[in-house]
Amino acid sequence: MALKWYTRARRIPQMIGRTPDGSRIPGGPYTFTQVVSGAAMGALLWATTGLWAHGGLLPSVIIAAALVAGVVFLTGQLPPGMRNPVLLAVGVLRAFNQGFTLDGDPLKKTAALHQVATDVLVFERGSRAGLEKQQEEYEPGTETADPALDPELPARPALSAVQRLILGEQPS
Amino acid sequence: MKNPIIALHQNLRFTTSGQVWADYLLSGVGYGLRPPEKKEQARELHQGLFRALPGESLMLGLCSTLDPYQVVQGMLEGVDIDNCPDWVAECEATLETVERFSPGRRIYWLSVPLEMGNKTWASFRAAKDSVESALGLPVSPPSKERIQSLLAQARRIVERIPAVFQPVPTTPAHAVWLHQHMLDRGLYRDGILPETTAQATPKRRSALVPVLMDEGGTTDATSRKDKLLANPLTRRFLKVVSSDLPYEHAASYQSMLVVSNVPDGEMLFPGGEMLGRIDESALAVDWAMRLTVRASKEVLRTNQRALETLNEQFSQREGELSHGVSALHMAAEDLSEYAAVLESDKNEVECQATIILSVAAPDPEVAQSYATGLATWFEGASYKLSQPIGYQEEMWWQMYPGVPTGPFTREYAQITTSGGLATLVPFASAHVGDQRGTLLAININTGPMLDEHTPCGAAPLIMHDPDGATDRNVAGSIAFCGDLGSGKSYVLKKEAGAVLDRGGRIIATDRTARGEWGAWAQALTDPCVVDVADPQWSCDPLRAFPDLTVGARVAHAFLTPLLNLQPTSEQGVLLSEVLEVKYLRDQEIGSLSSLIEHLASDCALDGAKDLARLMRAFSRKELCRVIFDVSLPSIDLGAPALVFLTYQLALPKKAELEHEHLFRQLGIEKIFGRAFFALITGIAKIACFSDLDQLAAFIVDEGHAVTSSTEGLETLIDFVRDGRKHRAVLFFGSHDPDQDLPSEVLRGLIPWRILMRHTDETLAKNGLRWLGLDPDDPELVELITKQTSPRPDQESLVPTHRRGECLIRDDAGRVARARILPPALKARDQAARTGGRADVAA
Q: For position A117, what pLDDT does the model report?
């Protein structure tokens, strides 16, 4: 047993060399890519005559013919058997997209890492009476500074705002 | 693109398109070192697989890294950790060594889209799911009935797959594992593949970490200018980052390649297994094959249209002076041949395969160099790999189960028959060995190691579990065959050391003048080393065995060949009488020396004095002190390691035993040697069989010394025959299996066989035959004589990374090329080395 690929048998490069009446097209045969790109160029030029056709009929026709012929010639230089040019063109356009995509959507800006500071609610074992007592004992300005802390940091109250709310106090 | 997975239920993937995919894990078919007939069988199985998958399917061959902890877990399984500190230390050291060479294994995956049923309803359901998902609403789970119906449909598909592929339904945990594997390609961070028996908890898309992708890695540019100047033509790779980690710590650079051109001519089989042998490229490659299988009737219609197109093109290009027309002629020939192939086999189908490959690294340049290397490797077989610009991300998703086949994939589809595609043998496996036990070797079936820590491709590890063999009802014995200096003794010591460290015991014979096994055993444990030339211990069977019945039986078996007595002769009968347990007890005979004294002076039986004289002829010899010297302490049969140093002994050749005139001329070394080897094997059998729960290994290095004697051979056969039931195994070292394992029975009862280097062609062929391979295959002969642990030149040692190469055949008959791994602990490694100074220093 041997492996034989039959891709070539089915992917036949298609060219146009004759008109429907059987006469030969000059300079042919042409690939579909050449025909389509030449026609597209012609259509583009026709639609934009106002922009470029200011030198009279003959020069305009010559320019248009030269441009169409140039496009046909250039696309004819593409290697035979090349993949679908539309597919490849889409790929080229994609390649110029820059940056991350997340789930297919471009990620324009990646958020910089930043710290989030907030109060932390700590539930301690103990009674409400104990907490109230702790609060009663608290006198602003009388607490001793923790030597481990930066002395310039403002001293915090023993209970946070949230804790006070839980204890049923009115916010000051 | 967006991840199309909505939900994962059992092995089903529900997708945004409404299509449901069913996933399976497949097992590889044994391949590698096999005769062509076996390879053809593997190809036919693949052909059956492709024919069983009508429509679309996705096949994946994933190069997964092996977690060192998983390896060590296998090494520790069944071991009493508290009582085996040395084995724990070896396992700890193994973690580091295994991590260094990142072993891997191939995981095969099959994903099949299921029929959608009513397409309108399916589309509506998909749209509803997508809207719910986009709005952040909980996606309504599929009904139980629908899941059951889909599972039944999936089962019907896999029931057609040849059983050898063992399709196992995946779980959502596997889908998550695959997702993470694809994110982390090249980073060697694969987790352990979940158990297929694990509970299949359904998962939503949120279980699959969103993927950050950057085609061309433009986000690596340090300045805006660099970013603008980045040339997309030269940056054909995909930067993939898991969105749950800071990306600078976890970028995987992946290069995707597609098979864009295939050879025009025929690719011979065996030889063209591009996917089955992909690890021979020495790269960690993931491959995906998007497959569309079409029935021949449908294909014949398409071919008819192609024929019409072809005729039209002949007309269009008539008169053209170019190579185009000859291309049309070739296409016409192929088309005609293709039609003939399909006509000749009505079961034949068309396979349209798009093969996408991925290589990856933590660095973009390295990933691109891998891609170049892979393309070059494929070029060797006339395949062309391409990286179409702008399609890296598309290709990544086309390797993802659940993603519908896109226009890109269809554009690069290559067409052949199922028979032809099967010659790629994508699901090939060269796995050998057990699931747990001792870490014996690394599988180098894909090619020798590139350096000490770099295997060639996905190289799995080979474990050997002689202890578990008893529980699996198979023999755990192993034999090593190889040239002088090929590493037999080293690997025997490695295996024996593992038995000791895992709480077992060993009994070894050593014929080397250096007494290497004695030195090795002393480095590992507190052994009892019996040196026949300078004995520190006595092997007198009457003293050695606490049970006198056993002692008397062994003494009788020893003295009969030593004194050359016929059992029915007068002296033979006398010996039998005096070795009766009652007689020995009555006469208070506790040693062979006291037996001689008794026969010479106190025995009233006829011929006693003559027998005493005969025995004294031996007992007075210096060589026989090891038996008859009562001043020596008796051998400690309870020692973890018993080593017999026998370099001063010789065994009679077969001819000397068969021809009487030669037999009469036997020297005392040979006569005593013959009897003493019988005694050693007798002691080994009794000692090894004494505890049914403890693994015991009888190690016979230089095995010809034992098997050249008929008695030695018979004892070994008995040992192996009964060993399995008693958790006792034989480790046998040999130069030539034909000579040293002359018995078919003994050969057949040793299932694990390791063939090391043999530079001699005849010995290499004998070894190959012993493994069950074709000895006349010149490639295999060259593999053993020239490609196994080769020396660069006559003056040099074998490079470190090529030492210990061999072929391993396990108890299932699977054969693979391997490299024996040294013990992870340096001290163990050094103790096992027997080469010159350079070897020990290495």
A: 59
Half-sphere exposure of B404 (CA within 13 A, CB side): 12
Q: Nearest by CB to A10, which of B391, B412, B415? A: B415
State how far the Cα of B788 lies from the Cα of B835, in Å rounded to an integer: 18
3-state SS assignment for residue B743? coil
Q: What is the DSSP letter of A18?
A: B
Contact A4 B303 (CB under 8 A): no
Question: In this predicted model, what pLDDT tens digit does every residue of B755-788 receive, in sequence order?
Answer: 999 999 999 999 999 999 989 999 999 999 999 9
Which chain A residue lies closest to B342 (C-alpha atoms)? Answer: A6
Find, in chain A, the residue whose alpha carbon is nearest to that of B215: A95
Count the Cβ atoms, other than its own, within 10 Å of residue B304.
Answer: 12
A1 to chain B: closest CA residue: B269
Q: pLDDT tens digits for B515-568?
A: 889 989 999 989 999 998 889 999 999 999 989 999 999 999 899 988 988 888
Residues 36-95 of chain B with CB under 8 A from chain A are 40, 43
Q: How far is A20 from chain B (nearest CA, A)?
A: 10
Report long-range pairs for B122-127 (Cβ below 8 Å, ≥24 apart): B122/B18, B122/B19, B123/B18, B125/B18, B126/B15, B126/B16, B126/B17, B126/B18, B126/B19
Quick one: tokens of A73? 């010639």
Quick check: B408 contacting A, CB < 8 Å? yes
Looking at beta carbons, which residues of chain A come within 8 Å of B414?
5, 7
* Among candidate residues B112, B159, B133, the one with its CA nearest the CA of residue B13: B112
Helices (DSSP H) in B115-231: which residue ranges? 119-134, 144-158, 172-183, 224-229
ipTM: 0.79
Q: Span A128-150, mean pLDDT?
A: 55
pLDDT of res. B324: 65
Q: How far apart are CA B454 and CA B448, in angstroms?
A: 9
Size of interface A-B (CB pairs under 8 A): 168
Would the CB atoms of B338 and A6 count as touching at under 8 Å? yes
Residue-wise pLDDT for B401-428, tens only, equals 999 999 999 999 999 999 999 999 999 9
- Calculate the dihedral angle through the C-alpha atoms of B342, B340, B313, A32, rounding to the nearest 10 degrees: 30
Count CA atoms closer than 13 A to A18's CA, side-chain side. 13
Closest residue by Cα to residue B215 from B48, B394, B459: B394
Provide the pLDDT for residue B840. Answer: 44
